[in-house]
Amino acid sequence: MGGLTMKKEVVLPKKEETQSFYNNANSNKEVLLQVKDLKKIYKMDGVSVHALRGVNVEFYKHEFTSIMGTSGSGKSTLMNILGCLDKPTSGNYYIEGEDVSNFSKDQLALVRNRKIGFVFQGFNLLSRTSALENVELPMVYAGVPASERHKRAMAALESVGLKGRENHHPNQLSGGQQQRVAIARAICNTPSVILADEPTGNLDSYSSIEIMGIFQRLNQQGISIVLITHEPDIAEYTQRVIKIVDGQIVSDKRNDKVLLASEEIKKHKKPGTEIED
Fold this sequence. Notes:
Blueprint: H1 15-23, E1 31-44, E2 47-60, E3 64-68, H2 75-82, E4 90-95, E5 98-99, H3 105-115, E6 116-120, H4 131-141, H5 146-159, H6 175-187, E7 193-197, H7 205-220, E8 224-229, H8 232-235, E9 240-245, E10 248-254, H9 261-264
Parallel strand pairs: 3-8, 3-9, 6-7, 7-8
Antiparallel strand pairs: 1-2, 1-4, 4-5, 9-10
């Protein structure tokens, strides 16, 4: 399966490997997602609310980008359009060069299933379904045969450190473990991009760093990631930081000092353990 490496536990990238990867990340840019003059206007009680005001931005293959903004900034609206969950009022949205701005609902659903992996703040797992079955779900919709679904789901769960917990239900897993299941589900169809909407919002600091480490490892394996966050410290784990205010991009900068999860995790206490004197 493309992009997945078999792992027995969550292994964060080594410092030298990660630093070398990010130092050379900008050498070959190839556009993956592009929006041109994107506008989104909502009608609320007869009043026009401008959620996006002519946004222009490109996202590149093999890049790890964060989009920062406060509540009401337009970042979630932009994420919904990038994820083909909503359509712009005007403007164009291209995925790998194809304009999907005017696709039908069925066409957008097909794009979501084949090209986009989602990770949400609330995990969005089916509560009465095992971790394995949750991961298999997108492949059911994609028509992947049962034997292949099982193989891919097992590999995806192992790649995020959940080998041995395939049959656990969400209520038997910690928040961090549930988010790992969600990441496994996002990568099982080998999408063009992972869209992560506040993926650490419900997690403690240690689990948050673990999740960012998994994202960094997946990114090193070639998976493109766009992450929404309002937390500056989370954005520091990404290569590029875009800031949006009142529906407009006000800043788009490369992060020359990417935080390495493998190093940051050493500074935090794992929940349930004590720091030794």
